[in-house]
Amino acid sequence: MFESLSDRLNSTFDRLRGKGKLTEADITSAMRDIRMALLEADVNFKVVKDFVAKTRERCLAADVMESLTPAQNVVKIVLDELTELLGSTESKLVLSSRIPNVIMLVGLQGSGKTTAAVKLAYLLKKQGHSPLLAACDVYRPAAADQLATLGGEIGVPVFRGDGADPVGIARASVREAIDNLRDVVIVDTAGRLQIDEQMMQEAVDIKRAVKPDQVLMVVDAMTGQDIVNVVQTFAERTDFDGVIISKLDGDARGGGALSVRAVTGKPIKFVSMGEKPDSLETFYPDRMAKRILGMGDVVGIIEKAQQAADAETIASAERMLRDGFTMNDMLEQMRAVKKMGGMKSILGMLPGGQKMLNQMGGNLDESVFARNEAMIMSMTAEERLKPSIINGQRRARIARGSGVTPTDVNQLMKQWGEMNKMMSRVRAMSQQASGKKGKKGKKGKKMRMPGIPGMGNMGGLGGLGNMGGLGGLGSGSSDMDMLREMERQMRLK
Fold first, then answer.
1. What pLDDT score was predicted for residue 191?
2. pTM of the predicted model, to two decimals?
């Protein structure tokens, strides 16, 4: 979403880093570039004016201009101001003690309210709640059917009432939740293509009828400057508590999303990063600011890895250290990467990862996962457990069975060999640490981590190419320590 903005800002910072000492003219030029970058990203011009003025004033302070690393100080100031623009600290959804809690969603038609309602229900269900969806959009054709279908997919019931009176449906949904021991009601209201009095009055009437604990406005991230007028009107009439930004994984400029908090003062609570029910994420202003500035979101990767890890994964990691690395393990690691959102998603959260993706054309061919999986599944059970027995004849058979060339199979075997060697070294190190006899690693030799099977080392990411190994991070692996160290280094810059 913010690739163009990130590129422009990083180009500006690169020019500053090339200077040993900054002058007022350098700062003025940099602020002009930042102003143009934000305006081209569709950030509201008043927001841009205030942002640049505050940033420039801080950058011209004596402690910045006279320091040994003025360019780094400028980057830090821009990061701080961008974080402030986005909301400083995360604003989590806080539920009250009453049963049921009522969460009301408002917004224009097409902003993604219905899918946001389902994603929110899925998130709350994962947290141990028992949500109920209320279909209060009686105008858009098949809106209730869409909600019922999506709700059925995640196992959350949908209350449709008489299908005619939105206020009555909302009120009855609360009684339905009480009768069926549902502790959260999510009210999906109707929208329009543009703001009109009927829509706004209906939202006000529903709010008055059910007295929601939280009113959340769903905003399409691809909306441009007009987003300012929309959120201001909803803020005045419904006094919403927070914002859900949908379609943040799109390719629009996204500046409107940066304007929401500054214009309304309302926090961004969630962002939607995809189509699947699990794609709704809590919004962290500092992490988003770092990603916009190309600093990555290492903490986000750690959280994704911990969510993907389970007891079975941890047991598998322990077995790999004990018995060696098999093709079944390689298959599990590739599936773990897909479970975390795919390699493109992970790379985008690494420092410099988005820049690398842009240099590669913005796309990453992840069909390699399917191709590698086909090759592994074409092996016999014995070959998957003991890949070392795969000779030339077996490789030719595997290639024919999976529809690839023998060269592809050779590449997969090479990657397996590198991973197996790495496991041997880790095993030797762990034996040494525990006082057991084992092979001594070469003193001073750095361990070279292999890349994702078939994807090499991802253009020089080195150890981070093996993101498949993140599946076992729940056991306190060295990969986790490496990621945490990266996050610490980013905070120091």
1. 84
2. 0.62
